[in-house]
Model the fold of this input.
Amino acid sequence: MTAPAFYPIGTPGQPWGPAEVSAWRARQVRQRGYADDVLGVVDRLRSRFEVSAYGDVAYQDERYPLVALRSRTWRPGLPGVLVTGGVHGYETSGVHGALCFLDQHAEAYEGRVNLLVVPCVSPWAYERIHRWNFDAIDPNRSFREPSPAQESAALMRLVAPLKGQFAAHIDLHETTDSDESEFRPAKAARDGEAFAPCTIPDGFYLVDDTRNPQPEFQRAIIAAVERITHIAPADAQGGIIGSPLFARGVIRYELKALGLCAGITGARYTTTTEVYPDSPYTTPEQCNAAQVAAVCAAIDFVLALG
Done:
């Protein structure tokens, strides 16, 4: 894959201002529907889960209701599990994997865990198949106070009253070829930096928390997912996307310091999944199934602790 020498918006070496953000926004085209793809599925699940609106994302004349689904009976004393998808709207299996989990498996955990599932954190970006929101901000670097992203701020408000109740948080993501051909060049241009090419890993991997590593938890998820799809091997430098491997298919980030979604609950067990949908060895259905397997393995690990 050959990345562009420079992104077609802005001036090399100069961060974007409002004019460049506006030019970038004008290039974004609505390609799919949040109302049909997400809210329509949520409506069909209303009889099985408690569905609540936890805010709106509003950009100019567009408004997107944000929805969360939770166990019908939230029982004090049970471990809480948060599942988030679509923090990056273009990462399709994160959204549909969360919805598939709800439809196919969530009820099996009724009475054993308190589930809170947010299937699509960034609906504007979901419709444009993009990483950023309307303001060219990455929601998954914006989980901090005060947040510059409406999407991140709304999710933090939802979670805040439940702090201390979560045993685990699984944040569902993808790493795609377009990260290298579009999104990383765009980020470099936006920030006035030089673009440095990177190798996209071919396979599934996880991001653990540098400040709270849980290797057995990550290992359990990798073992479950590799029954569905292949695990990303190390690159020529012995790591994945510039980070060292701490176990097969596992790297670590500073979740809170980077403003990442997986750091918002303070849960003991956290992970960010990364599915590779562009591999010739997988399908969209397998990508969704890999996300579901990761969620189930995470919950099963928590339950096995007693």
Observations:
- The domain at 31-174+202-304 is CATH 3.40.630.10 (Aminopeptidase).
- The chain has one domain: 31-174+202-304.
- The CA atoms of residues 17 and 56 lie 26 Å apart.
